[in-house]
């Protein structure tokens, strides 16, 4: 088995393997707070792009010390706004 992966489903023929980051998203609620790496994974963008969006205030977020944090509920609302604006 590969390093840093979790088996979440197994059959005789195959297994679905998840990284710890993917496994966290299966348990995430709307009130959870994400770091830049998690946000980038969630939006399927590069971490550098996530940082740039945060710095340019294109996406809702806040800083804890020097680290950016994002509420999943606010990101979901932002996604809905983006979808409506781009129709």
Describe the protein:
The structure is a single chain. The longest helix has 14 residues. Helix 2 crosses helix 3. The chain has 4 helices and 5 strands. It has 2 domains: 28 residues, no CATH class; 57 residues. It has 87 residues and is of the alpha+beta class. The strands form 2 sheets. Strands 3-5-4 form a 3-stranded antiparallel β-sheet. A hairpin with a 2-residue loop joins strand 4 and strand 5. The mean pLDDT is 81.
Structure in a nutshell:
This protein is an alpha+beta fold and 87 residues long.
What are its keywords?
87 residues, alpha+beta, 2 domains, three-stranded antiparallel β-sheet, two-stranded antiparallel ribbon, 45% helix, globular
Helical run tally: 4
Number-wise, the strands total 5
How would you characterize the largest beta sheet?
3 strands, antiparallel
Portion in beta strands:
15-25%
Whole-angstrom Rg: 16 Å
Order of adjacent strands in the largest pleated sheet = 3-5-4
Q: SSE string, helix = H, strand = E?
A: EEHEHHEEH
Number of domains: 2
Low-confidence stretches: none
Which percent bin holds the helix content? Answer: 40-55%
Distance between the termini: 44 Å
The overall pLDDT, averaged over residues, is: 81
- Structural class based on helices, strands and sheet pairing: alpha+beta
Question: What overall form do the CA principal axes indicate?
Answer: globular
